[in-house]
UniProtKB/TrEMBL annotation:
Pfam families: FAD_binding_3
InterPro entries named among the record's database cross-references: FAD-bd, FAD/NAD-bd_sf, RIFMO-like
Coiled-coil features, chain-numbered ranges: none
Organism: Penicillium daleae
Domain FAD-binding per the UniProt entry, residue ranges: 20-365
Protein name (Swiss-Prot/TrEMBL): MonooxygenaseFAD-binding
Cofactor: FAD
Length: 593
């Protein structure tokens, strides 16, 4: 899309530029990614992060299929990220145990890590700790001349103008103030957003909060768990009731539990209290170190609007593997819209689509998180331990409940009810922009060929005549060699996805097998894109590419096609009855031109 289309960065007297096209508040993974996406679209940005150094505790761990698809689309090292973090063989399971060395109570798959999920997405879920992800994104930013990252600076005030935002930035450790003018400001500063507070944007959510404690510790747990490897361990011991996230079973883990603040105020917690919890969770004498511990609040909180003028919000609230990924999808939705405004391709009001498209998704995510949390903690509390203050009596009740056939049947049913908690594929890739309807079931994904849906994934191959065009995608073949069950022949079929047809700076037209009249119709559409200087990639099934495995994809668009937005979501399903004028009208309406 050519040059940035907006003024370059100009300097204050200090380190902070006085003028930037886009100001991003918050240097967590969502803010970092927003800057990288914009840079790939040739829009410069400044990130201000209030902490001089980010927290070392792992926090978020699940990078879902959609997030990895987004990283791949923008060439942001999804293969590198998959090489870090938890190996698939270690992260495949959720174990329910009395303690890590105690009785195995039950087991469920952790998300969709089976071979069959590759028919729904080219990118299987991957587990990597948030600090490692942030480090990888920061390395990319340090090499990017379009991005300035300033740590130790916080937002002090914002003033909304007609076409720009003026922000005052303050040194976190000092009194210096800097004024920064930006065309757009994007708030990625979390649930306690200072930007949202300054704008007086209210939030909605559940009325009650749950206080949680995260204990970050290091230990070699492999000898303890043996062949019971897994991503999550739900601990039922009365002292350690909660769960362990096994980022690296040989080194780094966290224990997370609910805190009764009336009995144990968070300010009263000590390292020895944490050691007692971790010791009980492990269940045997193993050497470990407490690296840190911190309280946090489990709360469903969604801003009432994600936009106020030229200020946009991406505020991560959900937990349970949904929050970070929700934020990544937010900034993916924003990136091409902001870039097209800066490059004078779209009208400013294209951003009016952001709140209606993303808020309902965030709301559904947060409700699912609360539902998951309520169900699982209810299970842990149901084992005859509630209200029992004597630890040994509580442990006795736990083991007796597990031995009693009727009680054990209820426990097994309770564990089975958690299956949806650990399988959210419909939430990950099945959401539809423009629909407020929550998924019927979090786990049951089915491909959708409707406006607002993510383009369904199918494995494809390019014809010899189209390989030159394919080379312009600037992508390497997908690597599924980490899925050890696949043969060499199967791996060779899984190199390119329909999602790879969508460049992030372009609209994409995928056409089924047409008659001559259909090609004439689409020629008019192509000319409209050319006249408006809007990038468009056109792919024809049968002529440029073929579907390798999922024949239903070709059947769905046989005498029509799909017009795809730069964010890989369908703008319009084109049937044989749609005229070129109707297609052009839908495009212009989306771009607000």
């Amino acid at each position: 899309m050519g040059d940035s289309g907006s003024a370059p960065m100009t300097s204050n007297d200090g380190d902070i530029p006085g003028s930037v096209p886009v100001l991003i508040v918050g240097g967590g993974p969502v803010g970092l990614l927003q800057a990288l996406l914009l840079s790939r679209l040739n829009v410069r940005s400044l990130i201000v992060e209030r902490y001089p150094e980010r927290l070392g505790a792992p926090k978020a761990h699940a990078i879902n299929p959609r997030s990895l698809e987004i990283l791949r689309q923008y060439g942001l090292g999804e293969k590198r990220i998959r090489s870090l973090g938890t190996a698939r063989a270690d992260g495949h399971w959720v174990n329910f145990v009395t303690s890590l060395s105690g009785e195995a109570v039950g087991r469920l798959p952790y998300e969709r890590m089976d071979v069959a999920v590759l028919d729904d997405t080219p990118e299987m879920i991957h587990n990597i700790s948030q600090p490692v992800l942030e480090e990888e994104l920061t390395k990319l930013i340090e090499q990017d001349p379009n991005i300035a990252l300033k740590k130790g600076y916080s937002i002090h005030s914002v003033l909304q103008g007609e076409d720009e935002v003026t922000a005052t930035i303050k040194q976190t450790r000092g009194e210096n103030l800097y004024k920064v003018t930006a065309r757009h400001l994007i708030a990625c500063d979390g649930r306690k957003s200072r930007v949202r507070e300054l704008l007086e944007i209210p939030s909605e959510g559940e009325g009650s909060d749950q206080t949680m404690m995260t204990i970050h510790f290091s230990a070699n747990l492999r000898p303890v768990v043996g062949d019971r490897v897994g991503m999550l361990y739900w601990i039922m011991d009365p002292i350690a009731a909660g769960f362990i996230i096994g980022y690296d079973l040989g080194e780094t883990q966290v224990h997370i539990s609910e805190v009764d603040t009336a009995e144990y105020p968070v300010e009263s917690w000590t390292e020895e209290m944490c050691r007692a919890k971790v010791r009980a969770a492990i269940g045997q004498d193993v050497s470990f170190d407490i690296l840190s511990f911190r309280p946090w609040v489990f709360r469903r909180q969604i801003a009432k609007t994600f936009q106020k003028g030229n200020i946009l919000l991406s505020l991560v609230s959900p937990t349970g593997g949904l929050g970070l990924n929700c934020g990544i999808a937010d900034v993916h939705n924003l990136a091409y819209k902001i870039a097209m405004i800066h490059h004078k391709v779209a009208g400013a009001s294209i951003l009016s689509t952001y709140t209606p498209e993303r808020r309902s998704i965030a709301d559904n995510y947060s409700k699912q998180s609360v539902k998951n949390g309520d169900k699982i903690f209810k299970l842990v509390k149901s084992l005859n331990m509630a209200g029992v203050t004597d630890i040994e009596e509580a442990r006795k009740n736990l083991h007796e409940a597990l031995k009693d056939p009727r009680q054990r049947e209820k426990v097994d049913e309770g564990i089975e009810e958690q299956r949806e908690h650990f399988d959210n594929l419909e939430h990950h890739i099945g959401y539809v922009y423009g629909s407020d309807k929550p998924p019927t079931h979090a786990s049951y994904y089915h491909p959708k060929f409707i406006a607002g849906a993510r383009l369904p994934h199918a494995w494809i191959s390019f014809t010899p005549s189209a390989r030159i065009q394919a080379s312009t995608m600037r992508l390497e073949p997908i690597d599924v060699s980490y899925v050890k069950e696949l043969s060499a022949a199967q791996i060779s079929q899984c190199q390119w996805s329909t999602l790879d047809l969508c460049n992030p700076d372009s609209f994409t037209l995928i056409l089924g097998e047409q008659d001559n009249q259909g090609h004439t119709r689409f020629s008019k559409v192509e000319k409209h894109f050319e006249d408006k200087d809007i990038p468009l990639n056109v792919w024809r099934l049968g002529q440029d590419l073929s579907v390798v495995r999922q024949s239903w994809f070709a059947s769905e668009i046989r005498r029509g096609g799909l017009l795809i937005r730069p964010d890989q979501h369908i703008l319009m399903r084109i049937t044989s009855l749609k005229s070129s004028e109707e297609i052009i009208s839908v495009l212009d309406s989306h771009l607000k031109v």
